[in-house]
Amino acid sequence: MEKLIMLKYGELSTKKDNIGLFLKKLKENILKILTNDEKVYFDKGRMFILSKDIDNTIEKVRNVFGIHELIIAYKIETDYEYLKETIKELIKEVNFKTFKVVTKRSDKDYPKTSMEISKEVGAVVLKNTSNVKVDVNNPEVTINIEVRRDAIYIYFDRISGLGGYPVGTLGKGLLMLSGGIDSPVSGYLAMKRGIKIESIYFESPPHTSIETKEKVLSLAKILKTYNIEMKVHIINLTKIQEAIYKNIPNEYLITILRRMMYRISAIVASQNNCKVLINGESIGQVASQTLTSMRVINEVVNIPVIRPVACFDKLEIIALAKKINTYETSILPYEDCCTIFVPKHPVINPLKEKCEEYEKLIPYKELIYEAVKNHEVIKIEEENKYQDLL
Description:
Layout: E1 2-8, H1 19-33, E2 39-42, E3 47-50, H2 54-61, E4 67-76, H3 80-90, E5 98-105, H4 114-128, E6 133-134, E7 141-147, E8 152-155, E9 159-163, E10 172-176, H5 182-192, E11 196-203, H6 210-227, E12 231-236, H7 238-247, H8 253-271, E13 276-278, H9 291-298, E14 305-306, H10 314-323, H11 327-330, H12 352-359, H13 364-373, E15 376-380, E16 386-388
Parallel strand pairs: 5-6, 5-7, 10-11, 10-13, 11-12, 13-14
Antiparallel strand pairs: 1-3, 1-4, 2-3, 4-8, 4-9, 7-8, 12-15, 15-16
Helix pairs in contact: 5-6, 7-8, 8-9, 8-13
């Protein structure tokens, strides 16, 4: 008898002819977070991990997208009598009063049907365990048996995975990561759909503090848990922001600033083979996130922009932030560049023509070129270490 981890795919199983590509990426992502002691293999129906430390391996793998369920299973040979003897041994370690047996038989040539196996194994349990009974509707324990061509697998408990697609199967995107609650959640949701992310952060020293930058890097490190690896592009926005503040009417400050951030993000995305921009905009949450504002800001780039939390309310976003462990970091009281110089009455229905007129008042193309050329790239490492790539 061999104890191992069985992974079920869920949504991936719908991929049919393309499933091999998804499973190859899933295996690759799993191996990146494990040591050389584990062995990972798969077929079209299941993936398996052999590990000397199953509990530790599960804690790591449960944060990998593309897995519907993680199961501690027992692999035995296909001999039917040995199956019944194994069941007798395993149930000695399980405390229950009610149970049912569920059998799945992918090997249709096996001499026993699924119904026969469930019935006969149930009889073995009743005979060898005192004071238990069958409950097919609400059992305390479900004894799962999977009969495959090469082996039989037995398991009791299931651990929910994150679902979705393996990160990297749908290409790469650039996350506009601020220090707030929304953008990390958007990054998480994009990763769940198979998008590998890099992040871009806009700082404005001395108007923003080093603590704000460290806060954003901490959020990136949390997201790395799900993304396997993470790079953060740090853009110094000081000259652009000061030029906007000195030359552009107060109510248009945020709109013009966001247009500049979009332009810069699109350039960095193109340089790093990112197919989309991702941000945490939520419709109507602030002045720059009205439909009119979003359209006027969005039109300065041709790259698609994904807004995963666009239709979520704030409480829904907060709940997800808590689930992925970014909330407590996001609420640390350090201001980012979008919260400084905020006008009292920002325009909520900006005009494209006004934006273009005001942008002529500053040499924004030269400023953007300088900001992109001199930007910093940081690779997130383990244990709060950051590797400066430039």
